[in-house]
């Protein structure tokens, strides 16, 4: 099998479709289908399940995917090293991030990075904590923004801390001194997100043994805020998500203060490609020098 075969496999795995993979690689769908069939014949087993709604990896394909990504990442690193020796700053960086970072911080980071390194292509993948962790494990992304709740799984470089705030409906009684405490939250109805996006809230509730009635289980941040606005419960969210909030809700600090810690993880810490290393240092420097008002 050739390196291009691996690129075809990767495109099909990412796109979940022969047609979309063909568009990405500027080939015909029949050429993609033929290339996968040749790979399967050579390997002796099926790599993809074909269906009306697209294709999915078989268990065999999924087990090979991390190794195929490693080969492609190594080739990208080699090409970037060659470019650097020729005095060129070029390459590709795949970056994974969760919603609040994508909306509140990443645009400024990418703008400043691309101004300094216009020849480096950046691909952004947005998802839940679990999505981003899986992309990092399998090599689909080179760098990933992650919460410190993932610290046991990855070597994180801390970027910043931001306080957790309590968001309540507009008609909620004013708490003493304008501060929410675990005692005031105990027994209240909560709007919560899925485990993959709401690790900090769950950690906070567990730490202070806060008993809750969980009425709404939502996926995204804006739905969370909308449910609170409708009076369906209260919630705990990082400040970055609420910085530009215009909903009819009240936002209060929490005591004892709790922070969300956000860090940057690398897919291959000891073998970063030149472009990945440039992006890594740019993000770290940007976050450590940024205006706290961005958080």
From TrEMBL:
Protein's recorded name: LysR family transcriptional regulator
Record-level GO cellular component terms: cytosol
Pfam family, one: LysR_substrate
GO molecular function: DNA binding; DNA-binding transcription factor activity
Family the UniProt entry places it in: Belongs to the LysR transcriptional regulatory family.
Alphabetized UniProt keyword annotations: DNA-binding, Transcription, Transcription regulation
Domain HTH lysR-type: residue ranges: 1-58
InterPro entries per the UniProt record, alphabetical: HTH-type_LysR_regulators, LysR_HTH_N, LysR_subst-bd, WH-like_DNA-bd_sf, WH_DNA-bd_sf
Tree of life domain: Bacteria
């Amino acid at each position: 099998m050739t390196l291009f075969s691996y690129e075809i496999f990767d495109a099909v795995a990412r796109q979940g479709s022969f047609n979309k993979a063909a568009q990405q690689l500027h080939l015909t769908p029949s050429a993609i289908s033929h290339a996968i069939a040749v790979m399967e014949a050579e390997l002796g087993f099926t790599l993809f399940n074909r269906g009306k709604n697209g294709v999915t990896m078989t268990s065999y394909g999924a087990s090979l995917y991390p190794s195929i990504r490693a080969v492609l990442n190594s080739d990208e690193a080699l090409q970037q090293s060659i470019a650097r020796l020729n005095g060129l700053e070029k390459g590709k960086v795949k970056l994974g991030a969760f919603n609040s970072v994508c909306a509140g911080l990443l645009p400024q980071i990418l703008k400043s990075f691309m101004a300094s390194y216009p020849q480096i292509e950046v691909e952004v993948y947005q998802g839940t904590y679990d999505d981003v962790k899986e992309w990092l494990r399998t090599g689909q992304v080179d760098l990933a923004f992650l919460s410190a709740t993932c610290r046991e799984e990855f070597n994180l470089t801390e970027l910043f801390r931001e306080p957790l705030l309590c968001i309540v409906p507009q008609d909620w009684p004013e708490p003493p001194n304008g501060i929410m405490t675990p005692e005031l939250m105990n027994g209240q109805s909560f709007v919560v997100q899925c485990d993959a996006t709401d690790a900090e809230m769950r950690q906070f509730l567990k730490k202070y043994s806060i008993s809750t009635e969980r009425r709404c289980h939502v996926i995204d941040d804006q739905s969370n805020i909308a449910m609170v606005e409708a009076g369906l419960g209260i919630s705990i969210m990082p400040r970055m998500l609420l910085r530009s909030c215009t909903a009819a809700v009240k936002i209060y600090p929490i005591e004892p203060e709790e922070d969300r810690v956000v860090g940057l993880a690398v897919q291959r810490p000891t073998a970063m490609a030149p472009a990945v290393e440039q992006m890594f240092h740019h993000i770290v420097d940007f976050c450590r020098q940024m205006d706290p008002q961005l958080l």
